Amino acid sequence: MRVVVILISICKIAHASIFPADQEKCHYGDSKCLIRVANSVVSRASQGFPELGLPVFDPLKLRALDIEQGGNSPVNLKIHLRNFELIGLSRTKFVSIQGFTKDYDNARMELKFNIPSWQILGPYKIDGRVLILPVAGNGVGNLTSYNNEITMKLLTKKVIKQGKEYMQIEKSRLVYVTDRVAFDFTNLFNGNKLLSDTTNRFFNENWKQIHEEIKPKLYEAIASIYESLINKVFAAIPYDEMFLSD
Questions:
Q1: In a structure prediction context, what are the per-residue pLDDT tens digits for the chain, which is 246 residues long?
Q2: What DSSP character marks residue 187?
Q3: Exposed, middle or buried by CB within 10 Å (0-12, 13-18, 19+), for 138?
Q4: How far is CA 120 from CA 74, 96, 159, 183, 235, in A?
Q5: Which of 56, 231, 106 lies closest to 161 in space, CA to CA?
Q6: How many helices (H) and strands (E) does the chain have?
Q7: DSSP class of 51
Q8: Is the CB of residue 150 less than 8 Å from the CB of residue 115?
Q9: pTM of the model
Q10: What Cα–Cα distance (Å) separates residue 72 from each residue in 67, 206, 216, 220?
Q11: Whole-angstrom Cα distance, residue 116 to residue 197?
């Protein structure tokens, strides 16, 4: 299996910004405060929060997502999305944050958050087979995931830029639980409505098995998106300037 996801905006460490005066700060490692502040930032940043380096992220515009699932799997697909949107990130609600202590170099941290639903929407091309059903088409794809509980584990590092110290994520891993995934692909089989409707119904009736096969790399892509957004925040302001002095 292979996956590629490319964001329109690439995270870069630029000149340091100043932490917004109207945004609450926390003491290092204060979990309750960090949850409160993280949810506040999400609420404020859905239409962009330039002081913290965040673009508009609901919808979040993405350039490409390629998933290739092959081998002996019952799901043998090549899915390509271009210039599509990820919708729903502004409904992220953090429920647990561990870490973000004063010592953040080579540190392990954990985020837990819920999203009622998120949606991938945009132009797609698909080719392959699902169980016994051949699949082919290109049009507008819609993949919606409901009642999502997410745990993201981070390994962080210190980056020094122009004499300032910043935190960045070196590695991340995402564990994901969802109640249901719905698929809707327009224009399957060159617009044959009967085959298109039958295929979409088959996808949705067998969503658990399809989701189980594609989820490792789909979630890797989702993790890379969250990693990029988090890195943007911590690339905007030196780490020690984001916290209250102990």
A1: 444 444 444 344 344 578 888 899 999 999 999 999 999 999 888 888 888 888 888 888 888 888 887 667 777 888 899 999 999 999 999 999 999 999 999 999 999 999 999 999 999 999 988 878 889 999 999 999 999 999 999 999 999 999 999 999 999 999 989 999 999 999 999 889 999 999 999 999 999 988 888 887 788 888 888 898 899 999 999 999 999 986
A2: T
A3: middle
A4: 23, 26, 33, 10, 27
A5: 231
A6: 3, 8
A7: G
A8: yes
A9: 0.85
A10: 16, 18, 16, 21
A11: 27
The SS3 of residue 29 is coil
The CA distance from 117 to 91, in Å, is 8
Which residue type is seen at 158? K
Q: Which of 147, 103, 113, 73 is nearest to 226 (CA)?
A: 113
What does the alpha-carbon distance between residue 218 and residue 183 come to, in Å, rounded to a whole number? Answer: 14
Vertex 176: Cα angle to 126 and 69 (nearest 5): 25
CA distance 28 to 246: 8
Neighbour-count burial of 204, counting CB atoms closer than 10 A to its CB (0-12 exposed, 13-18 middle, 19+ buried): middle
Tell me, rounded to whole angstroms, the distance of Cα 195 from its chain centroid. Answer: 32
